[in-house]
Amino acid sequence: MKIQAVMFDLDDTLLWDDRSVKQAFEATCELASREAGVDAAALEEAVRREARALYETYDTFPFTQMIGINPFEGLWGELQGRRT
């Protein structure tokens, strides 16, 4: 049988989700600090706060909370539920 697909579970299996998010925030905020002169720590705090607020507006928020999705995954793309 020919292999038709390969699936990887990156979320806390191959990549540590919390650590990846932390490193991404730090790198991005440090770049913003160098390029735009903003305070890196203040920027990270503001982005985390706003991302959480945005994520809580999604229709899928209660379900994603139940299954343990990181709120900052709302930054990567819009989560959409399937309507039946």
What does this structure look like?
The chain is mainly α and 84 residues long. It has one domain (17-75). It has three helices and no strands. The chain is flat, with a radius of gyration of 16 Å. The model has no long low-confidence stretch (mean pLDDT 81).
End-to-end distance, in Å? 35 Å
The averaged pLDDT comes out at 81
**How many whole angstroms does the radius of gyration measure?**
16 Å
Q: Percent range for helical residues?
A: 40-55%
Number of helices, where a helix is a run of at least 4 consecutive DSSP H or I residues: 3
Which ranges are low-confidence, i.e. pLDDT below 50, for 5 or more consecutive residues? none
Strand element count: 0
Q: Could you state the order of secondary-structure elements as H and E?
A: HHH
Broad structural category: mainly alpha
Report the portion of residues in β strands.
under 5%
Largest sheet: none
Number of domains: 1
The coarse silhouette is flat
Give a nutshell description of this structure:
This protein has 84 residues and is an all-alpha fold. It is 51% helix and 0% strand.
What descriptive keywords fit this protein?
mainly alpha; single chain; flat; 3 helices; 0% strand; 84 residues
Give the topology.
Layout: H1 17-36, H2 40-55, H3 61-67
